[in-house]
Amino acid sequence: MEKMLEAQWLAGHLQDRSIRGIAIETAALIRSGILEIGMHLPAVRDLAQELGVSPATVSAAWGLLRRQKVIAGRGRNGVWVCGDTLSPRPARFEKIGNFGKHIIADLTTSSPDPLLLPALREAMIHGISAENLNSYQREGIANSLLHAVKPDWPYDAAAFMATDGGFDAINLTLQTLILQGSVVAIEDPTATRLLDILDNLSAQVIAVKCDEFGPLPDALQLALNKNPAAFIYQPRTHSHCGHSVSPQRLEEMANILSQHGQTLIIEDDGIGQLSHAAPISLGGHFPDRTVHVRSYSKAYGPDLRLAVVSSSQDLLKQIKSFRHFGAGWSSRILQHALAYLINDESTQQSIAHARKVYAQRRKSLADALLMRGVNVPERDGLCMWITVPSEQFALVTLAARGIAVLPGERGSNSPGQSIRVSTCQLKPEYVDIVADAIVLAMG
User: What would the 3-class secondary structure string for 237-266 be?
Assistant: First the structure.
């Protein structure tokens, strides 16, 4: 039988009658185990009467706990305790499939091949000569990095900022500029961690379907008709599908977005210089409401942990101010090191070589699949998105043959029948094995 908590008892254990106080003290009772998982909390009106506060106060407190994923439910079904861990977490990203111990080809992550990353020794030595080293001055971006990134930036931006990676930049942007529970339009599929960030904001996500040229105009129009606070998309080399937004599609998107002047535009250039496509942005059309993020992790190394963000002076000022709650600025040593690598000819040759190798690895699997009657579009990137009759059957079939891939539901809010196969570290000797297994997975 379900345990129902008495309103009088709970009210007696809550001293602070503010919204935050009710939430914090109830959370403490849950964390200590006094309120057990599965226990139903009193009706909002009953508890409000016992506390001497309005029902809206209790509802708001429950809303805070609901966003922390420790209580669930509402309305006639009531509210109950569903967890005892208060810290939010990226559930999609942390969710690990049980593929077993016999995996010979882990194709779940699109991490760069360490052997194709540029050498960092000289860059790091150069990094310690950065200006203002060890200063607590919270500058947005080091001058050396600003001068290095500007020449191939896709538009003439008013302001720039360095962050600790691309997802850090997008998380900061959303945390600063988007209210909890806001409507947000985003490509479908999209990066797993973007969906985690939106989940943490309790965002109401509207999926925008794409084709080989980017977000579909009709789908974007339908999404914008719901007045989203933000629209998030990947302008070049989509992390799952490998397409890049064409200049013609960009103009179509600009025409649609011009009719919705309140929607923030967030661009995630996650692959950066590993893309074969030229940089592209809506920033030239909408400089006052575009936030363009370029990550340098995949091309230059994840331990540099750097991205550069551009936007208007006003928007970046807000993001920088919010960032002062935490680190405040990115390491000048790492920024100076990245600037060195961007300007270093041998490093650029190394990145050009890496682009060719990644393209060949993707093509080798695509060719092997084509020989077996499966046509995967010839696109860019570090992975491929493949439609299958059943995700679960595909995962089990591949895992039984020692191959792990990412289920499509991890990158979509409208799960279908897809898998994402990373090709960036696919060894030549496994290409035919993987191709054979994928064919079997397709029934």
Answer: CCCCCCCCCCHHHHHHHHHHHCCCCCCEEE
Euclidean distance between CA atoms 286 and 346, whole angstroms: 36
Cα-flanking dihedrals φ and ψ of residue 286, to 5°? Answer: -130, 65
Phi/psi of residue 188, nearest 5 degrees: -130, 120
Contact assessment for residue 202 and residue 63, using Cβ atoms and an 8 Å cutoff: no
**pLDDT tens, N- to C-terminus, the chain (443 residues):** 456 789 999 999 999 999 988 988 998 898 888 998 888 899 999 999 999 999 999 998 998 888 777 888 765 567 888 877 655 666 666 665 555 568 889 999 999 999 999 999 999 999 999 888 888 888 999 999 999 999 999 999 999 999 999 999 999 999 999 988 899 999 999 999 999 899 888 788 999 999 999 999 999 999 999 999 999 999 999 999 999 999 999 999 999 999 999 999 999 999 999 999 999 999 999 999 999 999 999 999 999 999 999 999 999 999 999 999 998 999 999 999 999 999 999 999 999 999 999 999 999 999 999 999 999 999 999 999 999 999 989 999 999 999 999 999 888 876 668 999 999 999 999 999 999 999 999 98
Question: d(Cα 83, Cα 89) in Å, to the nearest integer?
Answer: 13
Rounded to two decimals, the pTM is 0.83
For residues 45, 51, 53 and 55, what is the CA-based torsion angle, rounded to 10 degrees?
Answer: -20
